[in-house]
Design a protein that fits this description.
The protein has a single domain, classed as Rossmann fold (3-Layer(aba) Sandwich), CATH 3.40.50.2020. Helix content is 41%, strand content 21%. The protein contains 7 helices and 10 strands. It has helices at 3-12, 45-62, 77-87, 128-139, 156-165, 175-185, 190-201, and strands spanning 16-18, 24-25, 31-32, 34-36, 68-72, 91-94, 107-108, 117-124, 144-152, 169-174. It has a 6-stranded mixed beta sheet with strand order 7-6-5-8-9-10, sandwiched between helices. The protein has a two-stranded antiparallel ribbon with strand order 1-4. Residues 65-147 form the Phosphoribosyltransferase domain.
Length: 207
């Protein structure tokens, strides 16, 4: 696994930005000392390949019975394609909502009720979008055995949502791991580390 290399490059290329002193504002209104733009990763071949290899190994370990890899549109699609290629498995992808023309499909690709599907997204914040993709897949007769992602904040909301949905979740990288590496590297001060840790414990209360 290339965890340290991946985290270092994500920060070096400003794909993940940490700014404890000048927080970012999310669309939800939440203030955050971290901003991730994982869609940029498709422009970095070596990084892209490391992530695909590690995701493939993770899924093979956590979901050895998987028969199909699914991508959550749009950001999860390229990574699902790369992982499916490495595992030599079929692939599907799930739109946020059904098409309003043609056959009105929400899920593209073929699967049966006997297949065991793992869905991939790039980033998990609360888990809402990927869990909606799980519901859509199961509504169409699919059997989703789990979800994986490149990065997760591991916020309390996400833990609760996955537990309620009874969906197994196996991320490649997490905020606590990122924070630990940044603290050990000396890139952030002790005070900044505490700020980042406090946000993670209760992000909606953070100012």
């Amino acid at each position: 696994m290339h965890q340290d290399q991946i985290i270092s490059q994500l920060i070096q290329e400003k794909i993940i930005s940490i700014s404890p002193d000048k927080p970012f504002t999310y669309a939800s209104g939440m203030l955050s000392p971290i901003y991730t733009d994982l869609r940029l990763m498709v422009s970095y071949p070596d990084l892209r390949d490391m992530i695909a290899s590690d995701l493939a190994n993770l899924i093979a370990k956590e979901f050895p019975e998987a028969t199909i890899i699914g991508g959550v549109a749009t950001a999860g699609i390229p990574h699902a394609a790369l992982v499916a290629e490495k595992l030599h498995l079929p692939m599907i992808y799930v739109r946020p909502k059904p098409k309003d023309h043609g056959k009105g499909r929400q899920i593209e690709g073929r699967f049966s009720s006997s297949d065991k599907i793992v869905l991939i997204d790039d980033l998990i914040t609360t888990g809402g979008s990927v869990l909606n993709a799980v519901k859509a897949t199961e509504k169409d007769g699919g059997n989703v055995i789990g979800v994986s992602s490149i990065f997760t904040y591991y916020l309390p909301d996400a833990k609760e949502n996955f537990a309620k949905a009874n969906v197994k979740y196996a991320p490649l990288l997490s905020y606590p791991e990122l924070l630990k590496k940044e603290n050990e590297s000396g890139h952030i001060t002790r005070e900044q580390y505490q700020t980042l840790k406090t946000w993670h414990e209760d992000p909606w209360a953070w100012k």
